[in-house]
Amino acid sequence: MLYFAYGSNLHHFQMKRRCKESVFIKKINLRNFRLTFRSKYRAADIEPKKNSLVPGGLFEISRSDEKKLDIYEDFPNLYKKYYFNYYGKKVMTYTMVKKTAFTFPTERYLNIVKKGYQDCNLDKKFLNKALLG
Known about the structure:
It is a single chain. The protein has one domain: Roll (Hypothetical upf0131 protein ytfp), CATH 3.10.490.10. Helix content is about 30%, strand content about 40%. The chain has 4 helices and 5 strands; from the N terminus they run βαββαββαα. The longest helix has 13 residues. The N and C termini lie far apart (about 30 Å). The relative contact order is 0.27.
């Protein structure tokens, strides 16, 4: 199945450790959404926003990888699944259940996300904009 990563799972080493069978395909943009950070975990989330976009990584993952991600993402308590079409293919990502106010991420978490942006060759301007709240 196809999975869209936009936060710490962009980090290739961490993603491979978590999901052994995952394969990074390419970078893509999720349109009409914006990146933010929220919850007591101060983690990445996406929310609908017209004319905005979230850059991310498209990965091929197995069913067992999906189960591991479900545990890591605390599905269905913290995150729920969101599906979208990308050139006729179904892609899964996660979005937070409770849309709490913006919280600045921890330095450790942010560094993992920044490394993921490098790994996937994403434009950091979207990350920097999200950090403004």
